[in-house]
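Q: Could you write out the predicted structure for this multi-component system? I'm mainly interested in how the pieces pack against one another.
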Amino acid sequence: MSELVNVTMTVNGNDVSHNIAPRHTLADFLRQTLELTGTHTGCEMGVCGACLVVLDGRVVHSCLTFAVQASGSTIETVEGLTERAVIADLQEAFHQRNALQCGFCTPGMLMTAYSLLEQPGVPSREVIRDALSGNYCRCTGYEAIVDAIEKVARDRAAVAHASAPEEVLG
Amino acid sequence: MKARAFSYARPSTVMEALEAFEGCGEDASYIAGGQSLVPALALRLQAPQLLIDIAHIDALRGVELQGDWLRIGALVRHCEVLSDPLIRQYAPLYSEAAPHVAHPAIRNKGTLGGSLSHADPASEFPAVTLALGAELEIANRQGTRRVAADDFFIDLFQTAIEPGELLVAIHVPVVRPGHRWAFHELARRRGDFALVGCGILAEFADDAVENIRIAFFSVGSTPLRARQVEKSLVGKRLDQAAIAAAQALVGDDLDPPDDEQVPPAMKRHLARVLLGRLLGQIARQGS
């Protein structure tokens, strides 16, 4: 009853194709089949947020998706975002602010932060906290994580402001 | 914490999905966003032989104004409910409830149709659907039928959808001038299931309540309408006395289950508080 199914997707820019059992979650597929272990599995029921990945442009829990459901999709993991250097400033700020201790939750935190900072404007601390409501950290107490994300949001806005054409600056 | 082995089908039409269900001796589950179903499978609360992935059926997508009704496809995701301009304009109670539904990553995948057919009594959207007086379009091999929200939520996780049937769309009577609405919930943390929540849609004539639908959630085995409260308010202006009288009545309309952490008396108290706030909010919308 559980014949293997061919799954093809683009992961971090690479086309992959594997025959897998439908019961495998996307998280297990990424970690075990593709050996992309930056995506962590914590609760495996959509609560802790350690397994977040970008699926077709939206951040989702890879533990709440079977890999077969994602066949035909484009996936980006924390490894992909790191390679593209699009979260380098976030990673640096997390480091500087001590926004991690054991680091287990950090890939998911970075995913949420990445997705939040894709939105226009500088989010308030309240908005940052709301965005992080689906990410558990059992070490830091979140304050440093919010600090790091807020700093990057402001830095990015300052850079965008400085590089804007003069007439827009008014 | 892994799902039992199952086979997988990805139909591209509603009829193909219905046939796939029938073809496997009805030991199947439909999956859309899977944000409630995947944990249920992982915990082996459910273990179907076949998973039918309906997420690629185009007919289940989209939001469209059809005369006096707004048709919301079952596959519309929570994040789309939050941002869709037609929903904001014509069924705004959904937009107001959406920020309270789970967390951003869940909202990116979970669907409105999934939430309604799952019928978790602590979920926001079933109660909003009830408050709006929406109708649910359900497909089966013979065709489609429409069920009023009042007849849709039958019991704990149980709806009017028969085995093998598929919820295809939600039809909402559009809000008109004279309508007022409010939604809120009390939860321990943002994104958690509510201790008590409520959505209200009211129609006013000359500043008096002409029609009102008040739907509570997390206070019984289904979302519940506070029918005695509704009745007490019809024809009244929403002044302090009317609101206080409504608050005194609301406990009898609800049926909170025994729960050590949130006992029924506490739920009734929270419901009174919430009802007072929401009716106050609706009263102020008139000024």
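A: Regarding packing and overall arrangement: The radius of gyration of chain B is 19 Å.
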